[in-house]
Structure formats: structure tokens, C-alpha cells
Design goal:
Chains A, B: Residues 10-161 form the UspA domain. The structure is a homodimer of 166-residue chains. Chain A has one domain: HUPs (Rossmann fold), CATH 3.40.50.620. With 166 residues, the first copy, chain A, is an alpha/beta fold. The model of chain A is unreliable at 1-6 (pLDDT under 50). Chain A is built from six helices and five strands. The first copy, chain A, has helices at 2-7, 20-33, 68-96, 111-122, 136-142, 145-152, and strands spanning 11-16, 43-50, 101-108, 126-130, 157-160. Chain A has a five-stranded parallel sheet with strand order 3-2-1-4-5, with helices on both faces. Strand 5 (157-160) of chain A pairs antiparallel with strand 5 (157-160) of chain B.
């Protein structure tokens, strides 16, 4: 049984976003989870979820139609952010000089739902996330993505907290 | 930097209790976290927290003094449970035939507080827990130990969910 587990392809999904916490989680993954990993079949999947495009009424408060270029600007910003996050994640991976195979996936929608759905669809062996140390109010109103994922993903979830001294 | 991390002693704490979920988390730890682990300095620490001994009034409802043997019985039950959990955990470790060094620690008190304090004191590199899939009410009233630990421990936390088909 152990032998099968050792040889089986391992899929590690790291949920990345524009936060320092998620980049720290990615570093931890490469330094601690993969550094000692002798399994040549491991794949690191960087997963970024674009926020949902807001559904505007076609009339703004002044009664004018929303110009198409406003929507295009929002979409461009969203794409730019995704590219920027993936470039940072790439830089972190290069920094560790790891031989691990890296794949990238970009989804869009409510992060917690899309992450859980993607992890199940990818049949990931483990999901790694940074812990956002929001204050009481933000947590109480927005809820925590990692709390939600801990309850809803089927695979083990690693919540990585960024040390305050770092 | 990577080299230092590779050579450094790794302390993995697994919080065990009488649940199937915690034994599954321990198995996952041995099969997935340690199977590919070539670090000879890794230590697996089995951490069991005995529930706090209830503080009774020395007079029970009938006005009689609590007999010493009642308290002794409660304490004996608590010790027996701790021993039984550790024996099961031992059996799981033997089953994996892992060369990893295993230590045992038993604490007592409110599990979530004692786990967080122990993990910090031991300077653990990672904490592994089973996910108890309590229903909405139990979770709402009792809260979740893993939610609490995710917010309060300094090291990365792995929450391992037992597959429903297992």
C-alpha cells in the first residue's frame, strides 16, 4: 500500500492571490513540502481565482448607459492582476530552483466555491492556502475562505500562517 | 537557505483523540507527509489532550460529600482513555513501518487552547489534525477545534478530512 502511495502522482494545489500570505504559503510548500520530496510525479498547481465581474445595471446613477470601455477596463484590470499574481508565483518557484512540475489554472467567481470545485475536479491530493489574519469584523462579515475550504474540500488542507516577524 | 531547511530537524505534531478522524489524519501523515521524507531528523509527536477534570462542588445534590473514589474513578477513566488512544496511534505507526522517530505527549485542559500552547512550546513545524464533520448545531455551539487552531497556531496546520467512502 505504501509503495502505491509513493509512486502515485501527487497533485498539490496552492491557491494564490495578490496577498503576501499566499506567496508565503507557496514558499512554504516549496521549502517544506517539496524540498524533501523524492516523488518525480509530483505536480504543483498554482490556482488563481479572479473575482467575479460585477453585474452592473446598464444605466448608472446619472441615467447614462455604461460605456463599453468601462467594462473592458474592469476586465483588463482583472486579467492584469491575474498575470501579475502568476508572475510573482513564478518568481517564487524559480527562487527555490525546484525540479517540481508547475501548472497554472485561472478560474473566476467566488473564490471559496471555485477553489473547492477546482480541487475536487483536479483530484488534488492536498490544498495549500495562506491564512489571512483579518480582524474580527472582516472575518465575521466576510467569513474565511480557509474555514470554508476546511469544511468543503475532500483532500487535506494546509493553512499556512505568515510569521509576524517575516 | 533550502539546504538549511532540508537539514533542520522537523517536528510534526499530530493531535490525536479517540475519533476515527484523528487516526485517519495520523495515517495520512505517515503515508503522505513522511513516506517521501528523506530527512532523518524528523520527529512525529503524538499529542493527546485529556479533557479537563470537572470541578465539582464537594457537596453533591443530596448534600453528601463527594466520595474520593468517584473522583479517582473519573481520573482513572481519563488515564485509560489516554492510554487507549496512544495504543491505537502506536498501532497505526507500526502499520506503516515508518522509520520516523515517534514521541508522545499528553496534556490536559481545553483541547484547542492546550494544542495551540503545546505546538508553540514544542516549536513544531507543522500541526496535523483530523476534521470532525460535526453537523451545523454542534459546530455552531461548540465551535471547531481546527478553526480555532488555524487562527491561533503559528505553524502551518493541516486539516485532514476522512473520505466518506473509507
Amino acid at each position: 500500500m505504501e509503495e502505491n502511495i509513493k509512486m502515485k502522482e501527487k497533485k498539490v494545489v496552492v491557491a494564490v492571490d495578490e496577498s503576501e500570505e499566499s506567496m508565503y504559503a507557496l514558499s512554504w510548500c516549496l521549502s517544506d513540502l517539496f524540498a524533501q520530496n523524492s516523488n518525480p510525479n509530483s505536480t504543483l498547481i498554482l490556482l488563481y481565482i479572479k473575482p467575479p465581474v460585477p453585474v452592473y445595471s446598464s444605466l448608472d446613477v446619472t441615467g447614462y448607459l455604461f460605456a463599453g470601455d468601462v467594462i473592458q477596463t474592469i476586465e483588463k484590470y482583472s486579467r492584469d492582476l491575474a498575470n501579475s499574481v502568476m508572475r510573482r508565483a513564478d518568481a517564487v518557484c524559480r527562487n527555490f530552483n525546484s525540479a517540481v512540475k508547475v501548472e497554472k489554472k485561472v478560474g473566476s467567481g467566488d473564490a471559496k466555491d471555485v477553489i473547492c470545485a477546482a480541487v475536487d475536479k483536479l483530484e488534488a491530493d492536498i490544498l495549500v492556502m495562506g491564512s489571512h489574519d483579518y480582524g474580527f469584523f472582516k472575518r465575521a462579515f466576510l467569513g474565511s475562505v480557509s474555514d470554508y475550504c476546511a469544511k468543503h474540500v475532500k483532500c487535506p488542507l494546509v493553512v499556512v500562517k505568515r510569521p509576524k516577524t517575516a
